[in-house]
Amino acid sequence: MTHALLAHYGLLQNMHVVKPVPARDKDLCRFHADDYVSFLRGITPETQQDQLRQLKRFNVGEDCPVFDGLYSFCQTYAGGSVGGAVKLNHDYCDIAINWAGGLHHAKKCEASGFCYVNDIVLSILELLKVHQRVLYVDIDIHHGDGVEEAFYTTDRVMTVSFHKFGDYFPGTGDIRDIGYSKGKYYSLNVPLDDGIDDESYQSLFKPIMCKVMEVFRPGAVVLQCGADSLSGDRLGCFNLSIKGHAECVKYMRSFNVPLLLLGGGGYTIRNVARCWCYETGVALGIELEDKMPQNEYYEYFGPDYTLHVAPSNMENKNSRQLLDEIRSKLLDNLSKLQHAPSVQFQERPPDTEFPEADEDQEDDDRRSDDSDDENEGKPFVGRVKRELHDIESKDMDVKKEGAGASANASAMDASFAEISIKDSNSGSVAAAAPLPQPPPAAVDVKPQGNVTKPEQPASASDMNL
Ligand SMILES: [Zn+2]
Question: Domain containing 116: what range?
């Protein structure tokens, strides 16, 4: 649905769409345990009855069900996020987008909240090959626990999560959780209550993120844009408008630091598509008309057929006093970080190599499932060169032909497409998009409750940070 809106709003012609190269076992094992990855690769709806012990051990089966194509779903969304990180590392674009990513609850050897593989941790590890410090920001209504846990003891990754706290899944994210050892003060948690509106949210988001950028000075930013923090979400209880949510994207973009935009939760799907479409426009610096263009999901957007929806009149339980206290506490913690940490220079690890598998959007109407064709096995660097060439020639085509959103509409028939973008207003944007059968994506469905501890919590030292 998001992709349909991007196509019909004419945004795809400002982007370079690239197909996600599936992450391989060894790519997933940079964070996840070998036996967990083997389990995900092998499990099927038919065989799951024979593996009850393993299902329980890896927390798969209830909130995180087994379904046909589960492993390839994981490989695809993880490949999109890591591929975006590789592009940012190569300065191929300023902003990379993977709305299918952002599955922030997955642990080293445990699925959680509809997240199986943590594409965010994997993409941050990729960014750390080039950048000394990476900032992670999470505006999903649920605490970004999997990412926080992975980097809890390092000062090379700062995690900042804004979330509903108190009798709410996953149960973690207390303001007093600030990181440990070298990571002390490098985890920030912003606990919020029901009904928060745009103004209250931004009264925390902007001053906190301004200070974070000042003291931490990240080389790259990963922003998880979970849309379950929007007003009217089926599982959420906040009252943000799409513009209020997108203000976070606009603000983080304004620092002109390489930016990876990821999806996440969101359970009123018409609003999820609206939100991520609008935020793609924000990434491109293009303001979209409220009146929605015709598209294949048009009937979902009635009765108004507009991009924006009004927030509700629900009570905002976040008092001014409470917000002031949270802000001062967090700014105080940040003031303890006077200088951005540095790391010793060391040889740069090799990029994650991806075999070639993208095509230009214009050609997509001929493509069905024949994904990895003649380019299989090519290293990524060559691919970047080719894509840069493609972008240049495509720019010329756009100039010749002028605008025309419909040219890309046929791409909707492809089973997957990936996007890369050339931004007319500022730098360039690249995005990976799953098409058009919505994968069973949707993150963190688990209602309230049980905070479980993984058998082997991942730590930054496991990953040699
Ligand atoms: Zn969520």
Answer: 2-434
